[in-house]
Write a structure and sequence with these properties.
By secondary structure, the protein is mostly helical. It has a domain of 32 residues. Helices cover 94% and strands 0% of the residues.
């Protein structure tokens, strides 16, 4: 049973380390995707408004 606790602890430590290493890169990627999505939505709204005139 102790072996499983050690394995879980090692996995938890590895997960925390991975988040620290890759966290900034993931955050930047999500922000860039959000910016592109926002730009696309705004262009769609503008196009719809121009089309309804």
């Amino acid at each position: 049973m102790t072996e499983y606790i050690i394995i879980v602890a090692i996995i938890a430590i590895a997960a925390v380390a991975a988040f620290k290493v890759f966290g900034g890169k993931v955050k930047d990627g999500i922000k860039a995707s959000g910016d592109v999505l926002e730009q696309t939505v705004n262009e769609g709204k503008k196009s719809a408004e121009e089309g309804s005139d």
